[in-house]
Task: structure prediction
Amino acid sequence: MSQELKGNSKDSKNIIIIKDLVKTYGGQKILAGVDFKVKRNNKTTIIGASGCGKSTLLRLILGLEKFQEGEIFIEGQPISKLDEDELNIIRLRFGMVFQSAALFDSLTVGENVGLILKEHTKLKPSEIAKKVKEKLDMVGLADTYAQMPAALSGGMKKRVAFARAIVNDPSVLLFDEPTTGLDPITSTTIENLIKDLTDTIHATSIVVTHQISTILNTSEKIIMIHEGKAIKTEGPKKIMKSKNKMVYKFVNGLVDTAPKIV
Ligand SMILES: Nc1ncnc2c1ncn2[C@@H]1O[C@H](COP(=O)(O)OP(=O)(O)OP(=O)(O)O)[C@@H](O)[C@H]1O
Ligand SMILES: [Mg+2]
Result:
């Protein structure tokens, strides 16, 4: 995991640079020239209407899908030029929490969290167990090590997914809709956890969300995807009064006209 890519020209300020990114599905342009930068150790939030391409953007950053035009630079590396082995090295620098917790039902909580270490490192089972317990402790779930995911609540599953995402101390944490479907108190706990975990492991975070509390609580920079482009917005303190009409409407939940009833 300590393997480095050859010729890695690090941009010390920006860990990710997205340039003129175009993604189409079956001829339909979902991302039509997205541009933005993610500063190292910064907390970025991506917002935008359902279906605008937020999850797609995270998959592209992880190199799980190909894009048609533009480039994504990770630590200065243009990912479209990397082969699968090089992409795997890059992926190990990321921790991803998917829109659903996506735990394996047939594995215990401890096995779920430790899976990546078992598959991608030469660590002994006792060393893996130690790391897994340390991360479960960080998310407040040390007692669930031997339990099956089915025995956990939705909020607990989310926290296990967080423990799994940080088990290899990644440099970037990606969260897709981390608070959707959770009650307001659990959401706040999760939001605080996102900030604390990101700071504790000295990571950079990118959070995709619709939820206003998450936008206001976890962001230093907010990007809105609209009509395939990235709109830069005010920070969390001013976004509710955004001068950009589209951003203002989105965060305040305003619609142009009443929906047509036919
Ligand atoms: N594998 C795929 N094949 C074809 N179309 C896809 C695929 N994945 C996503 N899309 C389409 O791309 C668009 C963006 O999808 P995406 O899941 O990225 O949106 P999103 O912004 O994450 O939405 P939500 O807020 O509902 O999660 C949608 O129109 C979706 O139908
Ligand atoms: Mg999505």
Observations:
- Confidence is low (pLDDT under 50) at residues 1-8.
- Strands lie at 14-25, 28-39, 43-47, 69-74, 77-78, 94-97, 172-176, 204-208, 221-226, 229-232.
- The first strand starts at residue 14 and ends at 25.
